[in-house]
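Assemble and predict.
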Amino acid sequence: MTDEEIKHVVVELFKKIAPDTEPEKLAPDDDIRHTLEIDSFDALQFVVALDEHFGIETPEEDYGKIATMKNLIYYIQQKKTRLPT
Amino acid sequence: MIEFNMPSLGADMEAGTLREWLVKPGDKVKRGDIIAIVETQKGLIDIEVFDEGVVNQLLIREDEKVPVGTVMALIANGEKGTGKTLQRLGKETETGKPVEEWQPVIAPHLVKASPLAKRIAAEKNIDLQTVKGTGEGGAITKEDVEKAAAQKAVMNEIKPPATESIRMAVAAAMSKSNREIPHYYLQQKIDMRKALAWLVEANKLRGVKQRLLPVVLLIKAVAKALTAVPELNGYWENGFRHKDEINIGFAISLRSGGVMIPAIHNADKKTLDELMTALNYIIPRARAMKLKSSELSTSTITITSLGEANAELVYGVIYPPQVALVGFGSIIEQPWAEQGMLDVRPVITATLAADHRATDGATGSRLLMYINNYLQKPELL
């Protein structure tokens, strides 16, 4: 998957969890939770959705690595390439 | 014969609009069945019954607005005479309107529409009288309603009507609280180091979907503390009425503004995993404004938790007729002095707003001490 394709999926996931927000307008370095006003419950739903859509488990200690769109896409790319095909 | 009444779904509710009957005369019903959908300021609510019987008569038409306590249906349970109320939720006939004035009618349908069309119309706040039906015999179909909804959305893009009614519901309840309840407040800083460390380990053993949030520890600690301080669990109705069940009303903020406070029933008897499951069940439905009557009417105390990266302290306003509200601010790293040593700890500030008619500060203080003690022994929660 290209970065753009991952971003597209991620934006859709955020829209499902937080309707009325505009995740497509997130700048690469924006703090996602702060900008979209996502609480810890919604954040956990997002981590569950990452698992369902990309098959990647995000341990709690990695939450800091997915705080911005740029880091989130990088994180997903890294995790996916490590997965057995 | 049992009377099924328009339930009160909170101190702020005076009337509700019946949107749909899910039963018809002759249908058998049992405890917990959802038999009607009622629209209130808090959205569409599934209304449950709490006894067994056979529906005898439906007395209210769909789309009719009636005061709380109005008899909506008669249900035969083999007993003669009336007087027993099937709907036991909340406080009955709060408005004091005499039920006898009501003239029973059998529900004729005002407009022909499929159940699905009615449900969608209710959800999207479309008046079916204004929709032209293209189905069989002029019946309104799902497509007709969706078309009407799309037209309405174009004309009414600025503000969803639900936002305003939720605001008014919160305004009514909080004004009543401030007018009638003499609040007193206490606060306690709680060291969360042990609780959070325990949670990290507990979550390592769980899959992503089973992960626990810190708030379930807070809910369980409050519920257990209430078993030790029962004076704060119940209602003020011409005197304190203690409730045996500990039903925690959990305040959920809506993105569009306002709060919904569904109940987590018997929270003291639930495991942490069961509490997390309960949250997973109620939070999305509360945000979609789709709750059940029993969830909106049976809380015996309220918890409001601000969550991460928010203000460090919240002084709550009690939700009447309850007598207490426990508030939790964000967990924040703070200097912490203990045994002559200074350290940095994750600290949460718990507050209690309590009704001074029902209890005094000493009682409230005991509750906060118990909450603190339980959070120092998370493995026992």
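Residues 81-109, 156-160 of chain B have pLDDT under 50 and may be disordered.
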